[in-house]
Amino acid sequence: MGPLRRFGACWEAHVVPRMVNKMCAATPVAEMRDRVTAGLHGTVVEVGFGSGLNLPHLPPSVDRLLAVDPAMTGRRLAAERIEASAVPVDLVGLDGEELPLGDASVDGAISTFTLCTIPDAGRALRELRRVLRPGAQLHFLEHGLSPDPPVAKWQHRLTPLQRRVAGGCHFDRPIERLIADAGFTITKLRNHYMPGPKTFGYLYEGTAVGA
Predict the structure, then answer these.
(1) How many CB atoms lie within 10 A of CB 197?
(2) DSSP-assigned beta bridge partners for residue 62
(3) Alpha-carbon gap, residue 4 to 169, rounded angstroms
(4) Which long-range contacts (CB under 8 A, 24 or more apart) does 149-152 make?
(5) For the segment 110-145, what is each residue's pLDDT rounded down to a tens digit?
(6) I need a surface site. Which of 62, 126, 141, 179 has the fewest CB within 10 A?
(7) In whole numbers, what is the pLDDT of the chain averaged over residues?
(8) Which phi and psi (to 5°) does residue 154 adopt?
(9) C-beta separation of 187 from 208 below 8 A
(10) pLDDT tier, 7 (very low <50, low <70, confident <90, very high otherwise)
(11) Which helix (H) or strand (E) segment is 3 a member of?
(12) 209 closest CA partner among 133, 111, 97
């Protein structure tokens, strides 16, 4: 592996998880986490567990969290949150595209700022649908493609750069369509912009149930 590739691997493994941990802990995002975790209960799987930023927001009705994430640095950053959490956490897998869980085995699922990065987001969503019990919901908070043409234009332009510097993150994934195409029916959806540049922050916040 050449020096540039080694640098890229080091950046993605060690720097990106720390950037995400810092940026996604901001107060406005924390308030959104309170909303998106509301209603979760029983055994819940989280793809893109990262540094455990959702843990303090989980309601008491959650009995167990099954965490899936490939970033070892993120897991180290999550250690204190896991220790302080009232909800037991099991680190069960690395790959959201291939969940090590049985069919219809969980009571809920959550994905926050994750579908932008998973290489095959559609496959990951189909896996979540597979492991959810009938009637169980996926709770999601994701950034993605804006319906505003000038914003979308810049999202398409900047995504190749964003993918390089932010671990494969896309600005321009159509989150609502990806969820629907995976066989979910969206039961609640709120679209809005985060404070700051619109290119970075068009949000999809809601719930969906397997059709």
Answers:
(1) 11
(2) 42
(3) 20
(4) 151/198, 151/199, 151/202
(5) 999 999 999 999 999 999 999 999 999 999 999 999
(6) 126
(7) 88
(8) -70, -35
(9) yes
(10) very low
(11) helix 3-10
(12) 133
